[in-house]
Amino acid sequence: MTKNIQLVEVCRHFELGSTNVKALDKINLEIDQGEFLALVGPSGSGKSTLLNLLGGLDRPSSGKLNIQGLGLENATEAELTAHRRHNVGFIFQSFNLLSTLTALENVALPLMLSGVPLKERHAHAEDLLKRVGLEHRLDHRPTEMSGGEQQRAAIARALINNPQLILADEPTGNLDSSTGDEVMQLLRNLNAESSVTLIVVTHDPEVAAYADRVVYLRDGGVEKIEETKNPSSRKAIPDTQPELILNGGLSFRDLAGTAWDNLLRRPVHNILTAAGVLIGIVTLVAMVSFGIGVQEEITRNFEALGLENVFISPTFPEEEDAFDPFGVSEPEQPLTLKNVEVFRNLPEVQSVTPVLNLPSNMEVSLSYVDVVLPVRFSGGAGHSPIGSGLPIPPEMLAGVSLGEGDTQGLTLIEGLADQLLEDTDLEYEGLVNQPVMLTIRLPRGETKEFTTRIIGIESGRASNTVELGLAERTEIKAWWYGRPDTLQTDGYDMLVVRAVDKLSVPAVLETAESLNLNAQSLGAILEIANRVLAIMQALLGSVGGLALLVATLGVANTMMMAIYERTREIGVLKALGATSREVRRMFTADAVLLGIIGGFVGVIFGTLLGRLVDWVGHLYLESEGVVGIGQMSIVPPWLAIGALVFAALIGVLGGLYPAARAARLDPVVALKHE
Question: In the predicted model, what is the mean pLDDT of the chain?
Answer without folding.
Answer: 82
